[in-house]
Design goal:
Layout: H1 2-35, H2 40-47, H3 55-61, H4 75-84, H5 88-105
Length: 106
């Protein structure tokens, strides 16, 4: 019985840790968008048009800071964390947005 309880606690701790890491991925994505004058929710909708709004994105977005307050987030970092969590569609949309921003600067 006690071993079942420990196993349950371990499972809950692993799930909680994963959620925290996933929130960090969402924050990196959202802050990168803010830093480049993009709306995270819009990019998310482009990547996942059949999903309703992402409640976690809306919640985590509140943790972002202004472009002036934020440090630079390299594109490779954003793409890496998105890929790590299986958000390939969103990574592709971010890549396209970055390419579009690059061409606008020229």
């Amino acid at each position: 019985m006690e071993e079942d309880n420990r196993g349950k606690q371990l499972e809950e701790a692993i799930i909680e840790n994963y959620k925290q890491e996933e929130d960090m991925m969402i924050l990196v994505f959202a802050q990168w968008c803010i830093n480049h004058g993009l709306e995270p929710e819009e990019l998310y909708r482009v990547a996942y048009p059949h999903q309703d709004s992402n409640e976690r994105l809306l919640r985590v977005r509140k943790l972002t800071v202004s472009r002036e307050e934020a440090g630079d987030i390299p594109l490779d970092t954003v793409l890496g964390v998105l890929s790590m969590f299986g958000n390939e569609d969103l990574a592709m949309v971010v890549s396209e947005a970055a390419a579009s921003l690059q061409s606008e600067r020229k």
